[in-house]
Structures are given as C-alpha cells and as structure tokens.
Design goal:
Layout: H1 2-13, H2 15-23, E1 26-27, H3 37-56, H4 66-75, H5 80-108, H6 116-138, H7 143-157, H8 163-171, H9 178-210, E2 223-224, H10 225-250, H11 275-280, H12 284-293, H13 298-313, H14 315-318, H15 324-351, H16 356-379, H17 391-395, H18 398-409, E3 424-427, E4 430-433, H19 455-463, H20 465-468, H21 483-493, H22 496-508, H23 514-526, H24 539-550, H25 590-598, H26 600-603, H27 623-633
Antiparallel strand pairs: 1-2, 3-4
Helix pairs in contact: 3-5, 3-10, 4-5, 5-6, 5-10, 6-7, 6-9, 7-8, 18-27, 23-24, 25-27
Amino acid sequence: MLDRLSNWLDHRTGYRDLMKEALDEPIPGGARWRYVWGSTLVFTFVTQVVTGFVLWASYSPSTRTAWESVYFIQHEMTLGWFVRGIHHFTAQAMIVLLVFHLVQVVIDGAYRAPREVNFWLGIVLMQIVMGLGLTGYLLPWDQKGYYATQVATEIAGSVPVVGPSIQQVAQGGTEYGHHTLTRFFSLHAGLLPALLVAFLFLHIYVFRRHAIHVKDTKGKPDAKFWPDQILKDGVACLAVLAAVMGLTLWKGAELTAPANPAEAYSAARPEWYYLFLFRFLKFEWVSQAGEATGLGEAFGAVVIPGVLMGILVLMPLIAHIRGGHAFNVAYLWLMIAGAGALTGLALYEDWYKDDQAGRDFRTAFAKAHHDGERAVELSQSPSGIPPEGAITLLRTDPLTQGPALFNTYCIECHQPASREGEWTRTVEEQTVVIPPTAPDLADPHHPEDVRFGSRDWIRSVLTDFSGHFHSLASITVENGASEERAEAAAAILDGSMASWSSDNAGTLIADANKADFDALVEFLYAQSGRKDALPLDDDQVTRGRAIFDSGELTEGTIESCTGCHAMHAQGDEEPLSEDMYPILTNYGGHDWLTRFIADPEAHYAGNGEGNNAMPGFADQLSPEQLDLLVRWLTGDYYEPQSE
C-alpha cells in the first residue's frame, strides 16, 4: 500500500529525483566535522523563522504596545518565555556560526576560483544576518534596545552627503519613535528574511554547482552526503540547539524597563557582536582623524569598517597573487583577534573598570533591569497595564520615581553612609569632597531599603540624638552655608532634644524597661500609618501612648514628650498636646512628611518657634513629584503578595 502511494506521488511530483539530487552530493575524502557549519546556519535560520512566526502572532509593533506585547509573550503566554529565549539566543548563535563558517572557508581556500561568487553571496548573507540582529534589538521597545538602536541610526546619519537621508528613512522621519519601530519591524520580519531566503537559495545553488571544496582528502575514500555527513550535520545541529536551550533555561531573554525617551540611559550599548566597533569609535585618534578629514564620526564608523570589509570582499582576487592566500588567512585571523580584543576591552571597561564611565554604566544597567522587573510586577498587579501603556506604570510608581527624585534633590545633603565621599565640588581649582549635612535617609541604589521613619530610626533619635544628626555639624559658614542656617544647625545639635536624649537614653535602654521602650517606639511608628505598623488598639501601641504622655516606665521615668511636642495621636478625638514645635502628629507619615519637605520652617519649626536647618522644596517640586517622593519614603506603593 505504501509502495503504491509513494509511486503515485513520485509519478506526480518526481520527489525521488529531487531527494537523490539533494542527498547524493559527493563528499571527496568522506564526511568531516569541519563541513557542518553551513548546515548549522541553515538550521538556526529555520529555527528563527519558526520561533519568529510564533512571536509575530502575539507581537504588536507600536510604541504603546510593543513592550506590553513582549511582556505578554514573556510572562503570560504558555511557554512564550521559552520560544522568545530560543529566538534570542539562536540569533546570537548565528553570529558565532557565521564566524566559524567564514574561517573554515578561508582556511580551506573554498573562496577561490571558481567559487568567488559563492563567497560573495556568503558575505551578503552575513550582512543580512547582522542586519536582522540590529533590527530585532529595537522590537521589545525597552530602554536597552531603544537607546542602542538610536546610537546605530545616528551612526548611519554620519555618512557624508547621504547619511541624514538614510537616517531619516530608517527612522521614518526626523523624530525617533513610532515610525522607527514599525520600519524596523517590517525590515526584521519582512524584507530581510525574504532577502536572506533568496540569497540563501542562490548560495546553495552555486555551492552545489561547483561541489564541495576539499583542501586535502588525506587519502580517504569519497562518500555521499547521505548518510555520513548528514549524521554529523544532525549531531552538530542538536549540539547548537542544546546550547541555545541551555542558555534559555539558564538566563532567558531579558526585558528591561519600557523605553522612556525622557530618561537618559548611560548603558546604551549595541549587541556584543557590534561592541568592537563601539569601542573602536571611542579611541581619541579616531575622533581626531575624523575631524582632520572632515568626515567626523563617519571616518571610524563607516570608512574604516568599509575598507576592512572591502579587503574581505576582495579575498578571491587577492588569492590570485603569489602569497595571496596566506595573506588572506593572516588578515582574517588579525581581524578576528582585533575584534575580539576590542570586545574584551569594551566589556572590561563597562563591567570591571573603576572609573566614572564604568560606574555610570553599571548603575544605569542595574536601574534598567530593576525598573524592568518593577514594570513586570506592576503589570501583574490587580490594576494591570493602563491603556496609556506600561511606561505610565513607572511614571506613576513611587518606588521608581521616588528614588530618582531623591537622587536629584536630596542626596547631596542626605548622603548614604556607604557612599559618603562620592560628591565633590571644585574650589579654587581644587576638588573638595562635599560632606553630608543631614541624616542618612535612604539610598536610591537600594530603593526598598528606606531608613527614614523606621523603628530603628526612631530608636536612634530617642537614644542617640546627637549621633543621629551628627552630619548637621557640617553646616557651617566655611562650607558655604548662610549664617542663619549654620546657627540653626548648631542649635539643633545643642538643643533640648539632644539634652533629652542624653539624659533619658540610659533609662530607656535599661533591661527592665525593654518592653516599655519597644511600646514607645511602636506608638510613634503607628502614627505614620505605614502598612507594617501595629493596629492603633494593640496593647503595645496603647502602652506607648501612655508613656509618651506621662513618661512613666516600669523602672523610673523619662521626661514627658507632650511637654515639648504637639501630638494628636491617631485614633484619638482630642490632641495630647498642641501649639508646640516640632510637631509629631502623623510623624513619619504622608501628611507630616509632605508638609515638612514643602515648608519645614512653617510646619516643623513653627515659623521661628523652633530650630530648622532644612530648606523648603515647595517651589522646586510639583505636587505630583512631592507625592511620589513622600510615598516612596513612607513605603506607600504596590508590593506583590508573597506566595
């Protein structure tokens, strides 16, 4: 029955002749592992096509939906993360396999007559594959791809005469945005794959026309493509697939924060296989040569690479010259060594070199990944992704925007203890370290760890006020502060609260009063209304309220807090005390901190009734910015529920 069916099919299609033509290719000297590279490249391309179609089915190419659709693929679609990882790492594998294939072809001399055209077709295929990598980099529309591709289009724009037009065509206009994404998508999913298929067909056709080139048969008998070489090719393809799957399971395809044109990104880098060119452009002599020739950035980005690629293209002709083949082999190894060295140098400077550029790169990289993880958390929250897009999630997220605002407006004074000495200014041509002038509140590098208003913060203020606020001693006229501010800082350090802390700390930390001290801390912490505060009717909070009012402890007494501070305790109808400063009502909470940051002189010090050394920010921060900063410092933001 099967024979009759196969005979019928062969009579109608002639498939047996096609199979014979495909599988009976002669292999002089027998099958070898060095011949597997072409087959692995075809295999990786087919894998890219298959996974690409699956991704295409769920991808939406617009600036408002691109990141969102990739998020869906990565985190919501069944095995979407796996398909995307295969697609991502197979693209990396294609570059490596291309280099191996090129090396094998040049060393074996398989580029020489009559195979010149096939070699040139291979060079064209290499450029198409590089183009696929470049255009695919942008499609997730995240910070990493957005800024790296913008650099690439700017390099294209540096080409003399036609560069600006090329850049405008690639970007879809003068602005870098929605049309850039749709153009890159059409190139990545449409034009470039079609060109690759066409040139791959020509490449294989010309290859079969002249048969495989064997440098030395080593006296081994000839064989056919089937079965020995196919077995080796199949094993090699499985090895590539195993490596790609291993990387997918181990690392997975990354997705950084949604692209934000309003936020600078210091870690903009091309994919690793373009890093050599990126690093080459950073050499000072390249810039100087560009200026001297009037070519600008195009000298290093276009002219030099063009010359090097031109020599590669001319290899079949150079081989006709005596010693030409040896030159070609040496030249190829030199190119690979140079590109490898530049890539290694770029990686070292980014990841290990302790200079400002390296630190900026690592900080920006970490932030982009942190923000990417945060965007995923917010996308998975009950409210989900709003119609305005995922970027809105981060723009309205206190955990994302609060640290950024703190880094802009607060950090020079409130320097994190682990980072003191990072801030400097130039005074009379000398670099002077700026000392911290206010307590350590938080570190934007670790946004989940905020010290302000915490239980430990309250304990430190009560038992070691002078030590807690020791940085105020740096507010002096010599350090550039006004006389009024310097006097206020000195008054705080020498004031009644410092005396209270010194006089009462011993009683508070006595073993017999441990429970009382904990209760007082819990009472003050509960006033902030933070999510992890104890309920107002908890026994500890109730006990702490009594201590705050009376000062009576299990063993001894402390000076009552209501004698100096205004306090309307949460849940009480009547205030414990009023018309005194500093105000402790809602201490460490949203309302207290908002008023304090906006106008500390009025809210905290009572317009001259108390001491204040902090400037107000009502005229520097918008209400929205102030709200985001305060909500971050008070822990008022979405956190996923732990399972």
